[in-house]
Write a structure and sequence with these properties.
The protein has 198 residues and is of the alpha/beta class. The protein contains five helices and 14 strands.
């Protein structure tokens, strides 16, 4: 496995929930199982009321109504940040650095703005983005490996020339694991790797 994807023991990645509605309902509870540091945006506040889990930080874009502040009383203590929507990733990086956390799971839509923020602010943070039925890895060094099961699907964005081991090529950018075991993907440039999770 590339050292870029190793999470040290006792160092659970942080969890940033940008939009809880872009993934299957089972994804966030599975990410919460190990008690990560949880950061949410203002957009995700109704989700915590419905699912009752503890947050560590809240990024708001404007002042919250009094009734929402009252409802958040049970969450205290948590850190509150007034952030521009385009600075949440930068603010998250600073938050993680202060706590010595070197990994981050993000639940949100993969947009050009999010990709750019990850390129510029999270180069030294192992980052996985959960969106729809996949989790995405930004493979900055062009090398990726992991244990997989037979038939498990992967795709690469943008289409780049890669060398693979343990994967069957389905088309120019889609692959599936041939058998249980380690798979490898190697490219001469950075790429986004999507892994089908549902």
């Amino acid at each position: 496995m590339s050292s870029h994807y190793i999470i040290r023991e006792d160092q659970e990645p942080g969890l940033l929930i940008l939009d809880p509605l872009v993934v299957d309902s089972a994804v966030i509870p599975s990410l919460l199982e190990w008690g990560p540091t949880v950061m949410i945006t203002q957009q995700a506040v109704p989700y915590i009321f419905q699912h009752n889990f503890k947050i560590d930080a809240l990024y708001i874009y404007d002042l919250l109504p009094d009734h929402v502040n009252t409802m958040l009383e049970y969450q205290k203590p948590y850190d509150l940040y007034l952030s521009e929507s385009n600075s949440v990733i930068h603010d998250t990086k600073e938050y993680l650095d202060k706590r010595g956390i070197s990994g981050l799971n993000i639940v949100g839509e993969i947009t050009p703005l999010l990709k750019e923020a990850i390129y510029s602010d999270l180069q030294d943070i192992t980052t996985t983005v959960y969106f729809k039925n996949a989790k995405y890895y930004y493979v900055s060094d062009g090398n990726f490996s992991k244990w997989s099961t037979p038939g498990h699907g992967f795709f690469i964005e943008p289409e780049v020339k890669v060398k693979t081991k343990g994967l069957k090529n389905l088309d120019q950018s889609h692959y599936k694991a041939e058998r249980e075991g380690k798979i490898w993907i190697e490219a001469d440039q950075a790429f986004w790797l999507g892994e089908i999770i549902l």
